[in-house]
Amino acid sequence: MEGTGLAFELQQVSFAYGPEQPVLGDVTLDILQGSWVSLVGPNGCGKSTLAKLLGGLLAVNSGSIIVEGTPLLRETVQQIRPRIGMVFQNPDNQFIGATVEEDIAFGLEGRCLPRAEMVERVKRYADKLEIGHLLAKHPAELSGGQKQRVAVAAILAMEPGIVIFDEASSMLDEKARGELLNILREMKHSGKYTMISITHDAEEIMASDRAIVLRDGRIAADLKPRDLFGDEELLDSCRLIAPYEVRLVRELCRQGIRLPAGYCGEEVAEALWQLYSNK
Ligand SMILES: Nc1ncnc2c1ncn2[C@@H]1O[C@H](COP(=O)(O)OP(=O)(O)OP(=O)(O)O)[C@@H](O)[C@H]1O
């Protein structure tokens, strides 16, 4: 369920890595608490840079970012950072501990939690992510999908209200990608998290509430995922491919079988079934 408060308020945010290199310009947007936003766009358009600004890893050159009501400033960044978890592309770069258990516990140690609560959280989030049987393993013994589950467990154990996934599924195989997507869906369903996912994955975008399209460091579109996948020109400019069912509906339309565009999986099956049973 979406909350009524705002997780992020961005006003005319601009950022450059150097004087010659403006990356983001005039980005103004609000993100509702409890919502799941996909950040999409072609390579180099500024998605990761925006994620780092949101996560307090970089500071804006001009404009402002407010996180859950608190302005993100040099003086407040330490207070805001713990509210935001970030999961990156390469799970190997996210491992800190020598075992899965140590890795999940690592972030909690900095929070000065009582030992019993730390142990309980490690177990609870390991169980939630179905990695309880891996707690004693060394990271090198895990598959890519298992490593990414550990990375997510380590972030969720810190109980952030906001989680940013920066291409977290892009190095995973199809099965592990599907499993990670299910984790994201469960997180959304729990209503406990504001989620931002940077992704080129059509299914992941389709599962989110809203797609923000960046092009050359500016917001080019802000729309429902199904509307994004209904707009071939916009999709092309983001270098995205629509999910299979959307392409199927489009192809059926070309063949003269008319179904509304932008349908998602079960709706396509239902519409085709209706069509078939009315023959
Ligand atoms: N640390 C850095 N120093 C200098 N320039 C950078 C740095 N990180 C990114 N850039 C540049 O900023 C621009 C935006 O990069 P960014 O990684 O935010 O894009 P992106 O949309 O996430 O790309 P991709 O889809 O390829 O991951 C690019 O031109 C990139 O070369």
TrEMBL record:
Residues annotated as domain ABC transporter: 8-241
Cellular compartments annotated: Cell membrane
Superkingdom of this protein's organism: Bacteria
Molecular-function GO terms, alphabetical: ATP binding
Mode of membrane association: Peripheral membrane protein
Keywords: ATP-binding, Cell membrane, Membrane, Nucleotide-binding, Translocase, Transport
InterPro entries, alphabetized: AAA+_ATPase, ABC_transporter-like_ATP-bd, ABC_transporter-like_CS, ABC_transpr_CbiO/EcfA_su, ECF_ABC_transporter_ATP-bd, P-loop_NTPase
Entry's family note: Belongs to the ABC transporter superfamily.
Record protein name field: Energy-coupling factor transporter ATP-binding protein EcfA1
UniProt source species: Paenibacillus vini
High-level lineage: Bacteria, Bacillati, Bacillota, Bacilli, Bacillales
Encoding gene (name): ecfA1_2
